[in-house]
Design a protein that fits this description.
about 550 residues; mainly alpha; 2 strands; two-stranded antiparallel ribbon
């Protein structure tokens, strides 16, 4: 496959997306497994408090994530987020309140940033991959409908992420069950901490995509006299991030997506806090890991079919999303009216739960990227904000509020509602795309270029001219260099983790930085790809 002048090939970008997804998946898989089985291994109140603090941190991290990702960049945000998860896993090695609670707080804030950065990173990698596919033979086809091709690319990367995440969960849960059955609980926490650290080291080798100018402007102060944006103080950025995140709730589609996210969040709290003790009381703690492994196996098996269905058929993604909502509803309606007690029924229930989980983890981010292609940072911040708030409430109330049967309707209700509201969101997005799409310009006429921010309805000719300007504007001396924004220190590989921690500390300490933004050749190629090439009406059908 041919390479763009800046040295970015589609093959390398696909491998980059796989590496990022794998590092994220194994770290998150370790954390989810630890949370799932610890209710039966350590003090149940301590586990609930740690989960409560963790998801409270998620909420805080989600609303301030746009400003932090601008400050640190996408790659460093991923690194610091994975480091936070590693700290949380290490806290279980010595499970005491004064150890686990601070670790949960730090991990929660960094986890909120991590999830938002992960969504932005996948979107940036998808746009870069779609551009890299535009070689001499296929350029006309891809430029003719860049948004459709990018939607397929995003679907592919979210499908890869979902499959790797499901595989990581499966392996982590089976391994946890085997380790717990031997009675070496400390070995479980030490080994999973080591796994999280290794995955964090692996993340240091992914490309560093720059944050787009549109994202920067959300947390920037007014431009200076010479027109260059000036970075605001840390406090001003935090306020701007919170305002941008919450203001997106004015979008009817975002409001319609809230029940779907809330269902996932409540389910993520219900299973560790309620189902884990429920199953352990019936059949013993050693069974819990196998039940969660069943959920992970189901997710892994279904990840690829769901991705193919979403990408191959016009209404495939909507069908997958509705199926995910139906699986959530089925699980909690069964727990409401006929809670299973035999082991076979529990295995089946966890399998249906795994089917629902993989839909949210893979298809929902793709839906958000399609609905808000020009505002991915605040879109993904809302994605984790809604689910994080729901999980926070679940950890705060579920351990003390009632039995598994009494609490199941709390999750069943939004699960049923989510199917209706998602259907409305999909219809709303489709209608908006039809309404906003301008008629194509006659072939004999070349309309003038539109201003920045209004390029969604450009003609084929203008898109091709702009594309050629983008790829030829790269500095020829950088042709062999990867799309990595390195710092003057030149720290390679895993050494960037320490540098990222230093950067985070400096960012938190810098209350009023007047650093000006610069734009590298790589940023000219990729920085405003969403804004320049994706139609504003691109939605899931």
């Amino acid at each position: 496959m041919s390479e763009l002048p800046c040295g970015l090939s589609a093959r390398r970008l696909k491998l980059n997306g796989i590496l990022m997804s794998a590092c994220f998946a194994w770290t998150k898989g370790a954390i989810v497994t630890i949370l799932g089985v610890s209710a039966s291994l350590i003090d149940q109140n301590l586990n609930a408090v740690a989960g409560l603090i963790l998801y409270a941190g998620f909420v805080v991290g989600s609303v301030v994530s746009p400003g932090i990702t601008v400050r640190l960049g996408l790659k460093r945000s991923l690194l610091v987020g994975l480091l936070g998860f590693s700290v949380f896993a290490a806290g279980f090695v010595y499970p005491e309140y004064f150890v686990l609670c601070p670790a949960a707080a730090f991990s929660g804030v960094m986890g909120g940033v991590l999830w938002a950065a992960q969504g932005q990173y996948l979107a940036a990698n998808s746009v870069a991959y779609t551009r890299a596919l535009s070689d001499d033979e296929s350029r006309s086809l891809i430029l003719e409908d860049f948004a459709a091709q990018n939607k397929r690319s995003m679907g592919m990367f979210t499908g890869i992420f979902g499959a790797l995440f499901a595989l990581a969960l499966l392996v982590c849960r089976v391994t946890a069950s085997l380790i717990v059955s031997t009675g070496h609980v400390q070995m479980l926490y030490v080994s999973y901490t080591a796994l999280a650290v290794l995955a964090t080291l692996g993340m240091s080798f992914v490309w560093d995509f720059p944050v787009s100018e549109a994202e920067r402007q959300k947390v920037a102060s007014p431009r200076s006299s010479d027109g260059v944006p000036v970075r605001a103080s840390l406090w001003a950025e935090a306020v701007a991030s919170v305002s941008a995140t919450l203001s997106m709730l004015r979008d009817p589609r975002m409001l319609l997506m809230v029940p779907y996210n809330v269902t996932f969040g409540l389910a993520s709290g219900y299973f560790p806090c309620v189902m884990t003790p429920y199953a352990a009381d019936l059949h013993g703690a050693h069974v819990v890991g196998l039940l969660y492994a069943t959920a992970g196996a189901t997710s892994f098996i279904l990840a690829t079919p769901y991705a193919l269905l979403s990408n191959r058929f016009a209404c495939g993604r909507s069908a997958v999303m509705l199926w995910g909502g139906a699986c959530y509803a089925a699980v909690f309606l069964v727990m409401t009216f006929a809670p299973p007690t035999d082991l076979a029924s529990l295995y089946f229930l966890f399998a249906v739960y795994g089917s629902a989980q993989i839909v949210w983890q893979s298809s929902t981010p793709a839906v958000f990227a399609a609905y808000w292609p020009d505002d991915t940072s605040t879109a993904f911040a809302n994605l984790k904000l809604h689910s994080g708030l729901a999980t926070l409430l679940a950890y705060a109330a579920f351990p003390y509020a009632g039995t598994a049967r009494e609490l199941a309707p709390v999750v069943a209700l939004p699960a049923v509602v989510s199917m209706a509201t998602y259907s409305l969101a999909a219809r709303w997005g489709s209608a908006s795309a039809t309404h906003e799409q301008a008629p194509a310009a006659p072939a004999a006429e070349k309309p003038a270029h539109k201003a920045d921010g209004d390029r969604g309805t450009q003609s084929q000719d203008n898109l091709e001219e702009e594309y050629l300007e983008d790829i030829t504007s790269c500095d020829p001396t950088e042709a062999a260099a990867p799309a990595v924004t390195r710092h003057a220190s030149g720290l390679p590989g895993s050494s960037e983790i320490a540098f990222a921690i230093i950067e985070a500390a400096q960012a938190l300490a810098a209350m009023d930085s007047n650093a000006r933004f610069s734009e590298s050749p790589t940023e000219r190629l990729l920085g405003d790809a969403d804004e320049d090439l994706l139609p504003s009406g691109a939605t899931d059908v």
